[in-house]
Structures are given as structure tokens and as C-alpha cells.
Amino acid sequence: xxxxxxxxxxxxxxxxxxxxxxxxxxxxxxxxxxxxxxxxxxxxxxxxxxxxxxxxxxxxxxxxxxxxxxxxxxxxxxxxxxxxxxxxxxxxxxxxxxxxxxxxxxxxxxxxxxxxxxxxxxxxxxxxxxxxxxxxxxxxxxxxxxxxxxxxxxxxxxxxxxxxxxxxxxxxxxxxxxxxxxxxxxxxxxxxxxxxxxxxxxxxxx
Length: 206
Description:
The protein has 206 residues and is α/β, with parallel strands linked by helices. The chain contains seven helices and six strands.
């Protein structure tokens, strides 16, 4: 697959070849959905907790004798029907982690990248570099490349200047190419990839 390579001014400066194994793979929507649910589930903390009847204070003896009072029989003031009693079947700390084979996870990412490529929402830059960490410079670049759209930028490595310039833009996310994932690919309209990052993606997903 051949795509145009643009510079930071939005001008065409050449062409790049995208790997068909990554950017022209079969689009498997059920697999993408499963991978997204797994990632969302694994992001949950699962720290919610309530106290059962063995955790609350009080109790230790019957509030009153079993018979003869005219009232309902009670065994402990820790029971759920009492104010301050324990909660029945309440949430307790747990892990929401879901397992998914690595090959399936990578196949889902390839499907998402292929979907972006098929809809011409992958933009390849010759280089992405800024002299200063200025938000207005990054905003100008994004409006040139993908006006009125959210953008995911995949960088070949850490670039503090570009990262600081993009941090204040809510519709832009900077991500190392080695951390490419299904959630971010589906959340953003366009994917901007410098040519150096293409090599990283091909090494991981190829």
C-alpha cells in the first residue's frame, strides 16, 4: 500500500509503502470489540468495598430473648436489617482483569490500523519536530493536517518538546509507537505517524 508522505506544512514530499500485513489486514470487528472490552476491564481498579456483618461493630449477644416479647426474633444487631448492620452481597475488592492471547491483541490492533488506512485516516509525516514547546505551533500543525478532527500521534520515541506542545490540546494525544493500542486507535479520528515510527510499528506488529 502506497501513501503520501507530507511535511509539517501539509505539502506532499514523497510516498511511503505501508506493510500489507499491518495496514491491509482483514478487518475483524468482533475481535476489535473483544480487545477493547479487555483493555477497558483491565483499567478498572476494583477497589470498591463494603462491610459485611462480620466487619461492622456491635453485636455479640442477642438483643432480647427469643420468645415472650411480642417482637420479631433477632440474633444480632450486626444483621442487615439493623441500622448500622452489615451489607448483604455487597461489592468487595476484586480484579476485573481479562486475559487475551498476545496474537489476538496484535491482530485487533492490525484490524484497527487497516480500518484507518482503508478510510484514508492515516497520515504519514517525513519528520515531526518542533523548535520550541509551543501549543500554538502544534495546534497550527494539527489544523493543517486534520482540521476539525481528533488526532493520535505515534512517535518513534520520547520527544519532550513535542509532548509539551501537545499536552494542552484536548483533541490530540501523543503516544509512543511501541504502545499503540486498540482503545486509542478507536478513540481518535486520525492517526499521524512520522516515518521513523513506521519502522517501530512494523517491528512490533509485522
